[in-house]
Design goal:
alpha/beta, cell division, GTP binding, magnesium
């Protein structure tokens, strides 16, 4: 999969504000500060398509992007950061649940987990949502450059068991070294339908 064009379209908090479901859609989900923005920027070869921040909990909107004028990428708000307000924390689950429920053009989700952290209840809740809605998802272990190759493999083995996933279902990724970029793009391409853009099922 070769990305030649990427453009921010709009932000939203509720279905009435979502983009029209014209293109097949890939969503990105993960804990605050897990590296979603950095991953998307790395995939599209842009430094600042998605704004990054050192302060967790900043992205509280659903952000829509078009890729090659034929695919949509959707950056879902991060979760699990205790220092954001209680109102924001309680809004997250309904907002994401509504998105997952209504987007019939959603082809799959990229679930990001920091390779150094054990998954919490939010990750398992998301995976349960995916399973109930039969949404395919790929698990990407971010910030792999923070660990040596040996420690990467040890964490991969632990997370494979914890998440009850096959080792080939998890991809080691680093926005700094670009490790795993081509694998993620290949998996995204495999999720996309073969019919032409604009011909999405209603």
């Amino acid at each position: 999969m070769i990305i030649k064009q990427a453009e921010f379209i709009k932000s939203a908090t509720k279905p009435a504000q979502f983009t029209d479901p014209v293109f097949p859609e890939i969503a990105f989900a993960g804990r605050s500060n897990v590296g979603k923005s950095s991953l998307i920027n790395t995939l599209v070869n842009r430094k600042n398509l998605v704004k990054t921040s050192s302060k967790p909990g900043c992205t509280q909107l659903i952000n829509f992007f078009t890729i090659n004028d034929e695919i949509s990428f959707v950056d879902l708000p991060g979760y699990g950061y205790a220092k954001v307000s209680k109102t924001i924390r309680t809004q997250w689950a309904p907002m994401v649940d509504r998105y997952l429920s209504v987007r019939k053009n959603l082809m799959g989700v990229i679930l990001l987990i920091d390779i150094r952290r054990d998954p919490g209840k939010e990750e398992f809740e998301l995976m349960d949502w995916f399973a109930k809605r039969r949404i395919p998802f790929l698990t990407v272990l971010t910030k792999a450059d923070k660990l040596s190759r040996t420690k990467q493999q040890k964490r991969l083995a632990i997370l494979t068991k914890t998440l009850e996933r096959r080792k080939e279902d998890l991809i080691l990724f680093s926005s700094k070294t670009r490790q795993g970029r081509e694998m993620v793009l290949g998996e995204i391409a495999a999720l996309l339908p073969s019919h032409a853009p604009g011909d999405m099922p209603s």
